[in-house]
Each structure stands twice: as C-alpha cells, then as structure tokens.
Amino acid sequence: MRAVVTVIGKDTVGILAKVSGICTEYNANVIEVTQSVLQDLFAMIMLVDISKLNKDFTELVNRMNLLGEELGLQIHTMHEEIFESMHRI
Amino acid sequence: MINVHDILETIRMIQDECLDIRTITMGISLLDCIDSDIDKACDKVYDKITRCAQNLVRVGEDIEKEYGIPIINKRISVTPIAIVSAACSASPVKFALTMEKAAKVCGVNLIGGYSALVQKGFSAGDERLIESIPEALASTSCVCSSVNVGSTKTGINLDACKIMGRIVKKSAELTVDNQCFGAAKLVVFCNAVEDNPFMAGAFHGVGEPDCIINVGVSGPGVVRSALKKYPDADITGISDVIKKTSYKITRVGQLVGVTASERLGVPFGIVDLSLAPTPAVGDSVAHILEEIGLERCGACGTTAALALLNDAVKKGGVMACSRIGGLSGAFIPVSEDAGMIEAAECGALSIEKLEAMTAVCSVGLDMICIPGDTTDDVISAIIADEAAIGMVNGKTTAVRVIPAIGMKEGDILDWGGLFGKGPVMRVNTYSPSKFIGRGGQIPAPLHSLKN
Predict the structure, then answer these.
(1) What pLDDT score does B4 carry?
(2) Best mutation target, B5, B7, B58, B255, to test chain A (most A CBs within 10 A)
(3) ipTM value
(4) 3-class state of residue A3 by DSSP
(5) What is the pLDDT of residue B1?
(6) What burial class does residue A49 get, using C-beta atoms within 10 Å of its C-beta: 0-12 exposed, 13-18 middle, 19+ buried?
(7) How many C-beta neighbours within 10 Å does residue A67 have?
(8) Are B4 and A84 a contacting pair at CB < 8 A?
(9) How is chain B split into domains, by residue range?
(10) pLDDT tens, position by position, B93-119
C-alpha cells in the first residue's frame, strides 16, 4: 500500500524535512520524491509506503493537513489507488 | 511512479473544479419487516435500517479522508413503503417517522423510499400511502418520497397523475412555513429505476438484493474546465473531451463504491454516471452548455447540446465501471444549478424548454418553482406530459415541481444547501381539467411490444 503526499504552495526552507519528519513519526517509508516549480508555485510529490504504519492512515492524513495549515501550504495525502484508477486503464 | 501531471490533474479536479462523489447510497430491503401490526413492523424497520447502515457514515468519511475525495452525501434507500405497509390498516405516516428516526441515528442526510409504484393501478397499500405523503413529508425532515405513475411497458396511470397533482400541491401547502419544502422531497416518476442512488427519487426495488451499495458521481465543473481548454474544437472534438473527462470521474466512483462495499461487507451494485450539479459556483450543468457555445442555457440549441453532453457522459463512463445503473445522465434541476437559476431569472429558460430538454437527458422537470395558485389539474397535466415523454422514449422522466404557496412569478424560494434556490417560473394556465378528469390508463405505446 502506498500513498502520495503532495505539497503545493510558496517555497520555504525546510518543507521536505518537516514532511519527511512526519513520515518517520508514523513509520511511513519515503520511496520517491519529485519536485517541480509550476508558475511561481513550488510543488513536491512524495510517494510513501504506508503498509507498516504505526497508526491509522487517516491519522497521518490529519497530521499532514495540520502541517499544511501551520505552513500555509496545501498538503494532500491520498491513497495511491485514486490516481491509478483515474489515469490507468 | 505515477506521472506528476496526472497527480496534479486529479488534485486540481477535486480542489478547484468541485469533483466529488455525490452520494453513497445504501439500499436496504424491508420485505422481511412486513407485519400486520404497524408498531411491530416499525420496530423491525428501525432495527433493520440501523443494523445495516450503522457504519455507513463512518466508512464513507474514512474513504473520503484516505482518497482525499469529498463524498458529499451518505444516504439510505428502502423498499417502497407502500409494499411494506400494505398489510397494516393504520396510516403509514408512522413508517415515515421511523425512517426519520433511523436516518438520524445512522447520521445520513436523506432517506428515500416513502414510495408507491402505481403505473398500472393501485394495490392495497398504495392509495393509503399516497394520501399520507403530504403529512409524512411535513412531519419529517429527511424522508423523501416518490411515486411511479407510468412506464413504457404499462402506459400511464392517468388516475394517479390526477391524484399526484393534488398531493404535490398539498405537500407544499403543509410546509408553507418552511419554503414549501415538502414538495421538494417528492418526485413523480415514469419508468422509475430500482437502483437509483440519487434523492429524492431513490427507493430500493423489490428485485434488488437484501442490502447493496450504489454510488452516484458528479463533476459538472470538471467537464466545463476540460472544455475550456478547447475553445475552437468542433462538436465531435467536444464530445471526445467530455467522454475522456467522464471516464476519469467515473473511475473514482467505481473505486469508492468497491472500497465501501468491501468495508461494509455489502455487495456493490452500480455506479450512476451522472452529472449532478450543485448551486456552488463552478458546479453547473448549464455552464457546460454555455461553454459549448450558447449565450444562455435555454437558448435555441440547448436541447441539441444537452443531447450531446448526455450521450458523451455515458459513453465515457461505461468503460470506467463494472456496472452502470440508476439514472445515469446529465441532471437539469433548476434550483440546484447556478447557471439554470441565472437562466430562469433572466427569462432565457422556460418550463417548455426544460420539458424539451428532458427528452434527451437524465430524468425530468426537476426542482422547478411554480406559482402557488397553479391548479391541481395543471400540475397533474405537467406530470402526464412528462410521463408521456418517458413512456414514448423508453427513459426515466420525473416531475419535482414546488408550488410556491402565496408567491407569484419572479418570487424566489430559497432552501439553501444542496437544494439551492429557485425563481418561480411561469406556467401555462389554460385548463387541462377535462383531459385529466377522464381518468383511466393511457395504453402503452406500440414499441413496448418487444417480445
């Protein structure tokens, strides 16, 4: 089971560290990270393994949402299946 | 890893273009709750609904969170109460109160199935139930009612059309203090479907399994945004864009349905491939039609554009899910669609045009406010006209008009939320009374004889 963490917003120092810090806290293994700049927006997409989480996935989602609010960024933590369903036959 | 562009597209669809799952609806059979003692029957109904649907809202919210897709409504549909209450001689309103109580306990926002199927005549419980509809709707907040008055196979029960004109009016009168809301929870169908997840017309057909999960998708905003990128495409190109978008929307519906069904331990029924608008900005079917190239929804060309939209939605969605059902098509409820409201207010959209549109899209005259002094017979005749379109075209049609008691053309009924607000629209007032008063059955059309 994998999830996609997407961070969109204004670039600031330490975003990656904070997001991956939370992943460590919940025992979510970071598999891949992609970063790009869309117009003036920073976008980071992180693929994480959630099969060995030490808490419920929904708690991780809540925690990431909270971080998003703190940093003024949009952070979406979504199960990988939704992207696969939508974009792959 | 999944393509970055695809990930961002999905997020944009949800975040900016109002993509959502409109409803997860659990269909529950109440056939095993039938009892001649109404209190016993109601106890069984309450127990069965609360047992089957106890986890529905929680599971829905979990899925919402995990996949990051809003699931706007969690709802319940039940076996038509006319069947369940047929053995009781008391007024079936008690069933409505029981449904309301069970729905509140389960946390769902609407429960459908206070219904009767009378397309070919009335059986024991039918008339009693129909007569009780206004009271049932006035004394509950989340119970929805529907009556099927015709079908392609049976023709149209004109006696039922006549009664329903009066019942629709009375439902509005009894809820006059609440913006005539009773009538907004009452749908009169022709060719009603048994697995419809959308309210107010959902009920759980007798041919359905004991308990099932049906999903209704949405996404007018996504379709409109996709079309915006192709300002110069020809109409075939437009159809292709809609198909591709519809495919993606429906895939999410399929995923949510399968997941909900697994977690609830209930079989997955169908995905209803619908473009269901909400009054929210950017979630309008009318605006799609305008994006295709009409100055206003309701202009000449609206019917053709809607026919294309409706067809493309189905073609795109059909491959995206394992089973399709329900109403499947574009909805055109006036009060629930920002673009329709604007078009009705500025006079571009009339009831006559809406009637024509219902011949080529999903369902029928939906959420239309009509003057409070519209006679019962005129409402009956609106129902008969709409039923005729459904019967002859072999499609579902419905009438959900709200007589705005004490109001006239141009006034506004406002319910807020998903039900939205609607201007009172002009209705042709020439009398159809003699026609409606004849009663009897309009015979089924020749092309219903397919065997």
Answers:
(1) 83
(2) B7
(3) 0.87
(4) strand
(5) 59
(6) middle
(7) 18
(8) no
(9) 27-190, 215-444
(10) 999 999 999 999 999 999 999 999 999
| Cα distances (angstroms) measured from residue B390 to each of B101, B154, B356, B364, B450 | 34, 12, 12, 9, 17
Between the CA atoms of A57, A62, A67 and A69, what dihedral angle is there, to the nearest 10 degrees? 150
Residues of B with CB under 8 A from a CB of A: 1-4, 6-11, 15, 62, 65-69, 248, 251-252, 254-255
What CATH number labels A2-87?
Answer: 3.30.70.260
What's the rounded Cα separation, in Å, for the pair B133 and B170? 9
Cα(A76)–Cα(A7) distance, integer angstroms? 7
Could A87 and B3 be called an inter-chain contact, meaning their C-beta atoms sit closer than 8 Å? yes
Q: Where are the alpha helices (DSSP H) in B195-301?
A: 220-228, 235-264, 285-292
Task: State the pLDDT at residue B82.
Answer: 97
Q: Does A50 touch chain B (CB under 8 A)?
A: no
Tell me, what's the pLDDT at A15?
86
CA-based nearest distance A13→chain B, Å:
22
Do the chains contact at B255 and A58, CB–CB below 8 Å? no
Phi-psi region of B282 (alpha: psi -120 to 50; beta: other; left: phi over 0): left
Structure tokens at B79: 């076996």
Chain A residue numbers touching B257 (CB-CB < 8 A): none
Amino acid residing at B193 = V
Task: Give the pLDDT score at B208.
Answer: 95
What local confidence, expressed as pLDDT, does residue B219 receive? 86
**Any idea which residue has 């004849």 for tokens?**
B438
The stretches in chain B having pLDDT less than 70 are 1
Residue A12 Cα, gap to closest chain B Cα (Å): 20
B234 Cβ contact partners less than 8 Å away, ≥ 6 residues apart: none
B215-444 architecture in CATH?
Alpha-Beta Barrel (3.20)
- CATH class entry, domain B27-190: alpha beta
* pTM, entire model: 0.93
Structure tokens at B285: 């079917």
Give the number of other Cβ atoms within 10 Å of residue A56's Cβ: 13
Query: How many residues would you count in chain A?
Result: 89
Interatomic CA distance for residues B60 and B276, integer angstroms = 19
Mutation pick from A86, A87, A88, A89 vs chain B, by most beta carbons of B within 10 Å, is A86
Residues in chain B closer than 8 A to A78 (CB atoms): 10, 66-69
Quick one: pLDDT at residue B281? 82
Residue type, A27: N
